[in-house]
Design a protein that fits this description.
Layout: H1 2-9, E1 12-17, H2 23-34, E2 41-45, H3 57-69, E3 77-83, H4 86-96, E4 102-106, H5 118-123, H6 127-138, H7 143-146, E5 149-153, E6 171-174, H8 180-191
Helix pairs in contact: 4-6
């Protein structure tokens, strides 16, 4: 019983929010997360269904809230990881939920909504509104929320501009990697895997 209490106290619940990748990309991310130490973390994978034209941004965020409401970590950590476009959803969730203890935004598309091209808007109809919401929140994000966030950026990213990944008052990590996808893979295989 003593061992069980010690184990439960240090368990980490991770709410993972991916970006615009297709089904193949999501499958690969699930696989990489499955390699993490299951004695230390429980992964809760949220599928935003970015390409589903029938689901609005509000409905996506409502599903995220519903999943989050089922997580009752108690004394354990609740860690949010938002990747690429998923970072925009993560920003709102972090800002509105005090139960989040830490957050990592990896190559996150958090602002710069005016730079989202028509092909991306057509591919993921809710993306524009999600980034606009994140952008608005970041203008007045609380110190307590930003202090929980670590922004992880590569040296270069050809998909998301580096300035669109920043959160005022957050901690910042600059990787040695070049490229959007390879940086996300590195974070999942190495950087966060050994830290969480």
């Amino acid at each position: 019983a003593i061992f069980t209490c010690y184990y439960k106290y240090y368990l980490k619940h991770i709410l993972y929010i991916p970006g615009l990748g297709d089904n193949s990309s999501l499958t690969k991310q699930r696989f990489l997360l499955s390699l993490w130490n299951k004695n230390k973390v429980i992964i809760h994978f949220f599928d935003p269904k970015w390409h589903d034209e029938s689901e609005t941004y509000a409905q996506k965020y409502s599903r995220l809230i519903e999943l989050g409401s089922r997580l009752r970590p108690g004394e354990d950590d609740l860690i949010v990881i938002g990747v690429s476009a998923g970072g925009s959803l993560a920003v709102r969730y972090i800002a509105e939920n005090e139960t989040v203890t830490r957050a990592y935004l990896v190559c996150g598309k958090l602002k710069g909504s005016s730079k989202i091209g028509k092909p991306y808007q057509e591919r993921a109809p809710a993306l524009l509104e999600s980034v606009q919401a994140s952008e608005s929140l970041l203008l007045d994000i609380s110190e307590s929320s930003s202090a929980k966030i670590t922004v992880i950026r590569p040296l270069l990213d050809g998909i998301v501009p580096l300035e669109d990944m920043l959160v005022p008052g957050s901690k910042r990590v600059r990787l040695f990697t070049i490229g959007h996808t390879i940086s996300i893979v590195y974070v999942l295989i190495v950087y966060l895997r050994i830290r969480l």
